[in-house]
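User: Some background: our group keeps a shared notebook of sequences we're curious about, and every so often someone picks one and asks for a predicted structure to add to the entry. Today it's my turn. The entry only has the sequence so far, pasted here. Could you supply the structure so I can complete it?
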Amino acid sequence: MSETPRHDDPFAVAQQQFDMVAERLHLDDGMRQILRWPCRELTTTFPVIMDDGSTRVFTGYRVQHNLARGPAKGGIRYSPQVTLNEVRALAMWMTWKCAVVNIPFGGAKGGVCCDPKALSRKELERLTRRFTTEISILIGPTSDIPAPDMYTDAQVMAWIMDTYSMHKGYSVPGVVTGKPLSVGGSHGRREATGRGCFFTIANAMRHLGLDLTQATAVVQGFGNAGSVVARLLAEAGCKVVAVSDSQGGIYNPRGLPVAEVLACKQDKGSVVDFPEGERLSNAELLELPCTILVPAALENQLTAANAPRVRARLVVEAANGPTTPEADAIFEERGILVVPDILANAGGVTVSYFEWVQNLQEFRWKEEQVNRQLKEIMDESFAHVLAIATREKVSLRLAAYMLGVGRVVQATNDRGIYP
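Assistant: Of course. Here's the predicted structure to add to the notebook entry:
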């Protein structure tokens, strides 16, 4: 069942990353086959009535990679680029991510191939409710708990929760996380991915002996994760010199007023409309001189083609899968420290876990408690990964995989194979 890895196929990249750690952990062939492939996949094609009365058919996916450590957990994304292999890769990364931060979930992911920017609010709601109905055979508060991802948000989660609850006949807030506060969401959830990434950056900078207040940062992607990372870095005294979104980026070596850039994006739709910066492409942004580079957009942004020209001292992956294995090898050779996605962006799923616990307990935590426990988990997880990297003389990525995969292997062995 092996495949030749391709950097443009995220699932091939995910499998290649797993194969490397499987060798390091000396896993037997049976365990490799269990963990190398998703345990359950659902592909659905479903009709949606559009505002003009016509009917369009969309394709969606829900993939559960592994359930050894608990219910499946993972976001749902809406994007024209959604493919089954992308969702498979994201589900696998979720398995390792949950294990790295030691929360009791397995990995899952979902997606619908669509252009959400071309859909009206009512069309988006009808698509969401129909897709929820299609995947309702898998999701549930004790089986598979979706969350927001690319181009989905708290409103989409509320529609999913309401649809699932209508089918059950009673309210089930624990079926999703990332909901509005009014229907069981958690304080601190919206900023959790970016905040957790910021905690990781602070830990990595301390490890390198570098001062955040003397550093410069470049953030590719100015959505929920990237904008929060940029804001928190700026508030900590770091000079954010460039940011970007899907339409391009802006660069100012003297530093950008992040709060004003965010206001511009919210008002006009893109950071490129901010007047106090040189416009540049996303590809050019990745090669700017900086201390910290935060890829917070899509997969496969840092490859063998551009890795030799990256001029950052530290790369922290707020996005899932932005660095190919070939680029990883180049960065390691060049002495550029990479903090992998399964550690760096685990803040979102960590606070999703807090939200799920609050829903099960029917008890709400204060935001201070959420943020304090998030920092504790992110700091502890970074320390564990760094200790493995130091002891085994490996990269942080391989160390994170050794920790995450090792925990899933332990759970699989402890549970045994049914029947």
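Suggested note for the entry: The mean pLDDT is 95. The radius of gyration is 20 Å.
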